[in-house]
Amino acid sequence: MAEDGALSRILNQLRRAVGAAPEPDPVRAEQVAALVWRKAGKKKVEVLLITSRGTGRWILPKGWIETGEAMADAAAREAWEEAGVEGSVTEQPVGTYDYDKIEDDGEAIPCRTHVFALAVTRQAKDWPERDERERKWVPAADAAGMVEEPELTALLDAFATGWKKMAA
């Protein structure tokens, strides 16, 4: 089963590389995330992490796609609701990662998260989930060591070195 998931991710990466839409994973629920970033000097970039509501661990703003909503638009909406930022979002995901979302009742929902880069243009002092989360700007290379999901760690590592190409 894990091999099927890895193969599905590789095929979807190839589809995106040639401009084709990724296939949905029949086993995993689809979510989106915003990899919010800003320049920090000429050659450095920072990433915005937020805390999850349940455990307080560091994550990217992420969530469910609303009916009829484009994935990129959903990622931008989640960035606003959870982190209070707005900006320019990539039309295509810069990567994906899988994780199990633990519901309040303890049920685990397998999720595939499509990650979109969002170059921040505005950071608000007040936003919908301000009282529920912390946000923190960190060097992109440091962000990789702060998250728990291995595939997200790899994606953040790749972004730290290839952000100019990935965020274009």
Which fold name corresponds to the CATH topology? Nucleoside Triphosphate Pyrophosphohydrolase
Identify the CATH class.
Alpha Beta
The run of helices and strands is: HEEEEHEEEEHH
What is the count of DSSP helices, taking H or I runs of 4+ residues?
4
* Biggest sheet statistics: 8 strands, mixed
Structural class: alpha+beta
In CATH terms, the superfamily is: Nucleoside Triphosphate Pyrophosphohydrolase
Task: Tell me the helix content.
Answer: 25-40%
Mean pLDDT figure? 88
Q: List segments where confidence is low: pLDDT < 50 over at least 5 consecutive residues.
A: none
What would the principal axes of the Cα set say about the shape?
A: globular
Tell me the quaternary state.
single chain
Number of E-state strands: 8
What would you report as the Rg, rounded to the nearest angstrom? 15 Å
Which labels suit this protein?
eight-stranded mixed sheet; alpha+beta; Nucleoside Triphosphate Pyrophosphohydrolase; globular; 4 helices
Structure description:
- The chain is built from four helices and eight strands; from the N terminus they run H-E-E-E-E-H-E-E-E-E-H-H.
- By secondary structure, it is an alpha+beta fold.
- The protein has one domain (28-166): Nucleoside Triphosphate Pyrophosphohydrolase.
- Strands 1, 2, 3, 4, 5, 6, 7 and 8 form an eight-stranded mixed sheet that branches.
